[in-house]
Design a protein that fits this description.
- The protein has 328 residues and is α/β, with parallel strands linked by helices.
- The chain has 2 domains: 215 residues, Spore Coat Polysaccharide Biosynthesis Protein SpsA, Chain A (Alpha-Beta Complex); 77 residues, no CATH class.
- The chain contains 13 helices and 10 strands.
- Strands 1, 2, 3, 4, 5, 6, 7, 8, 9 and 10 form a 10-stranded mixed sheet that branches.
- Helix 9 runs antiparallel to helix 13.
- The chain is globular, with a radius of gyration of 21 Å.
- The two termini are 41 Å apart.
């Protein structure tokens, strides 16, 4: 175990591993299942960075009993929250790639193999996630969740929600280090969502069309932090809108093409974006609302399917969404 003030982190035979798996944990004695899902990966060239946020149960003791030399445990002197722990963990990652996993979640056996292979073959991609399945406390599958696959689809999806399941993501550490990226402490719940937006400035994003993550739904996951979540998401969407507004002339031109084609009846590009976000709020039930405009909104955005699937770069719908582009 490595304490908060340790000046000499334990060195292992994997001094410069290709992948740094990053896990934060607090009072999760069941974390052993998560850890074993990583240790049993078909791809074995990794180090395992674990940040314990000053657990007061037997979590640390249980983890210490695992003698795998790839595991490096760092214990906070006090509970400073997950975002602090994630950023601390980033400073200890030495691999070419950083793979996230959360306590209680399970990685599929080939997760690292598939994501490392993809990133090696696609140097333009800075982060890759995957589809995922939700499970209950007995590991029973509750649902399968498809995520947007392409860079274009992911950038469009960011207008409404986080485009990744956080613990499914593997990132390029070179980009994190070169541009000094981290989890923004202003976002208590959605710091990952903000990081995806930041990463999108420096390369493409992707999701693999396989479920590489079993995401556990617990008793504390519903409604406890909904107000904080909504506040975080609103700040991120405001930043996205500010990016869009920097190119508002081009946006307006493309919007007029869309309006003529769709005959939507809305007045300007910003109303268009606002309605888009409102529609997705209703769709995802983030807000409980009986807004009688919902049918109009659904009709206005009947072309959402094409945002994800239209490959014609001359299509104004594609051009409109592509304004949410990488910022160099």
């Amino acid at each position: 175990m490595i304490e908060e003030n340790s000046n000499n982190p334990v060195k292992t035979e994997n001094e410069n591993p290709l992948v740094s798996v990053l896990l934060t944990v607090y009072n999760r004695e069941t974390v052993i299942d998560t850890i074993m899902s990583i240790l049993k990966q078909s791809y074995q060239n990794f180090e395992f960075i674990i940040i314990d946020n000053n657990s007061i149960d037997n979590t640390v003791k249980i983890m210490q009993e695992l003698k795998d030399p790839r595991i490096k445990i760092f214990v906070n002197e006090e509970n400073k929250g997950q975002v602090f722990s994630l950023n601390k963990g980033l400073t200890y990652c030495t691999g070419k790639y950083i793979a996230r996993i959360d306590a209680d979640d399970l990685a599929s056996k080939d997760r690292l193999l598939l994501q490392v292979t993809y990133l090696e073959e696609h140097p333009e991609v800075v982060a890759v996630g995957s589809d995922f399945q939700t499970i209950d406390s007995r590991n029973r599958v509750l649902a399968y969740h498809k995520m947007p696959l392409t860079d274009k689809g992911i950038r469009a999806y960011m207008l409404m929600d986080s485009p990744f399941a956080h613990p499914s993501v593997t990132m390029r550490s070179e980009i994190i280090n070169l541009y000094k990226l981290s989890y923004n402490t202003e976002y208590k719940i959605s710091a990952d969502y903000k990081l995806w937006l930041d990463l999108s400035a420096y390369g493409e994003l992707a999701n693999l069309p396989q479920s590489l993550l079993m995401y556990r739904i617990g008793d504390n996951d519903s409604n406890n932090n909904i107000n904080v979540l909504i506040n975080d998401v609103e700040k991120i969407k405001s930043e996205i809108l500010s990016i869009l507004s920097n190119d508002k002339c081009k946006l307006y031109h493309l919007y007029m093409k869309l309006r003529l084609k769709e005959n939507s009846g809305i007045n300007n590009i910003f109303e268009f974006i606002s309605l888009y976000i409102l529609y997705m709020r209703l769709y995802h039930k983030i807000y409980c609302s009986n807004d009688d405009k919902s049918l109009l909104i659904k009709q206005t955005f009947k072309h959402l399917y094409f945002i994800y699937n239209n490959q014609n770069i001359d299509n104004p719908i594609y051009q409109f969404i592509n304004i949410l582009k990488r910022r160099k």
